[in-house]
Amino acid sequence: MMHKYKNSEAKSCLIDKHIVFLGDSRIRQLFYSFIKIINPQIKEEGNKHGNIPFEDKSASIKVDFLWYPEVNGSMRQRIKSWTEGSVAKPHIIVAGAATWSIKIHNGSNEALTQYKINITSIAPLLEKLAKSSDVYWILQDPVYEDMLSESRKMITNEKIDAYNEAAVRILNSSSRNSKAKVKVFSVSKLIAQETIMKSSDGLHLPESSRDMNAMILMNVYCNKIMKPIDGSCCQPQPPLTLIQKLAFCFFTLSIIGYFVISLIHRNNYRKNKSCTDLEIGEEKKPTINTPSVSTLEMLLHCFCKLGLIMTYFYLCDRANLFMKENKFYTHSSFFIPIVYILVLGVFYTENTKEMFIVLFGIATLLFCFAL
Asked: Which Pfam family name is an example for this entry (predicted)?
């Protein structure tokens, strides 16, 4: 689930932070969508092919866009200056570029080879930065080839895929044996596949898609800090609480105890039945009678069922094994169904014992949902 951050929440998360967007015009658009979360009044002004600063003095937030349309020596030198300590390191670095290399070199294979060499040279620097900062590499979005101008016709989806594959392979290989990793941001590519048809020029994403990418980026960084209730998409797996550990041990012991007592009880029943048959000296036909169940065995059996139910709800609601949807708890949504069932129970007079069991089961399920 993705949390929609308000500007006050974004400022609280990014207070005293320095964020740098490094790349081409697509990164510039992501930069504008990102700072609009902090200050919705910002307009896209300034030199399109130059550096663009932004600062929110109330929260001491500094966000810079640095114009580096190609992965080349200039970009490497900028990144190297952060690793050497001569310049203060940004807390968040968002980088990505490729379409300019395709355009300037007319989509040649030599340009792709040089791109691989250049990104290989900056990968260790990005990895070094990732030890103290959050580093994101934005994969290139697909284009809508039918809408591209003549000067951009060489930018094809086939070329973009080749550049993306090279970036993923090199960045993943450089961080394979390292704890700190450069995070490859691929969600923008997936969004663009569905929305690029709405682009005004076939190259840049529509505003709604850019805003979604910026909000996802905000979730990736801020969810682990702000921990919003409806922002579970990018939070790390929460550790088991003491209550969860105790409950797990209790239900596990209940299941083991139930099977042990059940096995002992049934073995004793068979032995007693065999001895009785031998004393009588007659061969009796097998009967369908089952051994009587003790109170302790019934209690453990109920605990086993409750443990399985609680495990199911934990996997669905607390673990990241299944897709989640936005769910909000309110007192009315919890108590109205209970009151409704209780009212029905008042008028339901037949077989009250079974009705009590049904009501107890429904109440237990509603309680688990509320947790």
From this structure: Cas1_AcylT
